[in-house]
Amino acid sequence: MGVTICVGGQWGDEGKGKVVDLLCESAQMVIRSQGGNNAGHTVVAGGRTFKFNLVPSGILHPDTVCVIGNGVVLDPKVVLAEVEQLEAAGADLRNLVISERAHMIMPYHPVLDRLEESARGDDRLGTTFRGVGPAYSDKVRRIGFRVGDLQKLRFLEKKLDFVLPLKNEVLVKLYGAPPFTASAILEEYTDYANRLERFIRDPFPVVQGALARGERVILEGAQGTMLDLDLGTYPYVTSSYPSSGGALAGAGIGPREVTSTVGVFKAYTTRVGYGPFPTELEGELAEYLRERGVEYGTTTGRPRRVGWFDVPVARYAVGVNGIDSLAITKLDVLDELERVRICLGYRSKGREEDHPMANISHLKHLECEYLDLPGWRASTREARSWGELPPQARAYLERISELVGTPVGLVSVGPERDQTVWVGR
Ligand code: GDP
Asked: Which of 21, 24, 42, 262 has the most ligand 1 atoms within 8 A of CB, as the residue to mutate?
């Protein structure tokens, strides 16, 4: 059966939650491979809405093992709140595994996140202030705390003796903020250790066992390709690797196991936070799409910026991730438009560009070349097969598929599980 990677092809929020949830119907394991509780997924099942930050979307399927992988940074308090919310809703969490290698957000990380962001002034990144970026920085500096440290509290205490003075020095001397005390942190994390103990595991035997048994494993990414630390619009990116390479590293799986890579794209584009966004729309149409698509962050409620479908971005995402099938979501949001546009390419400083460039100042100041197509002006929400989609909607999807050079495998026409058109099944 092998591994399916589910990767966001744009700037995140593409609707990966719903797509992963659908893929999980035939999967035995789902691994959340990177990101922290700065990402949010919404899954609607049986008329109920579930919001997740850390727990993989597959948790709604009682037989699916859900792993929070080593590439994730997690805030123990957030994971515990999610666990409680899910258990109250009747979900069975026996199958939840948290990797002992995942890193933890410590109490000083959100504080530093806010202070560092405000120190950036006009160059601020638009972080979610959850401490995710500072926790990843500490992981790279090798002064991070891992979930497994909760099982060795003496070791955690010793490490805190070394790390906390470094943090307090910055907090107090650089920002004039109050310091943290080791004893308070230790008390808080001892409580987390007790409450999380039942989930903490070494995922190596769990994941390799599933692969050896030939089970179907889904890798659930957070954010999207254009927010990848290396491949995205740096520095307006997240601090982890949402691309498929990052998914493998964050799950501890080798490329030989991968049987398919699904790229999730909205039928248009959105992004939160600052940074380049070539096809961005403003004014009435932007407002209309934002309202109709409910384009407000799951985690923060921040309004998302909206724009047309961007083929250069999609082609780039296909290339860097090895995407072999497109999942196009939220087609229904475009239902009432008279005209839909697809960005074919960019013109920057007199040059034609067919993919997003690394230089973000060039990417900020370019013109998009568009293909205009007639809208379908009919509801797609009830369509359950390709033939039930309006002809203009099919033409729109076919053009996207041709231009991106990749087949469409799934079209989502509403948030519910059954509001899905499987193509070629
Ligand atoms: P993710 O982080 O990529 O999973 O995306 P989010 O969960 O932040 O955003 C997707 C939002 O769109 C959620 O509220 C979904 O319920 C909703 N959604 C997903 N697919 C569709 C769709 O096809 N149509 C509509 N109208 N909403 C959808």
From this structure: 42
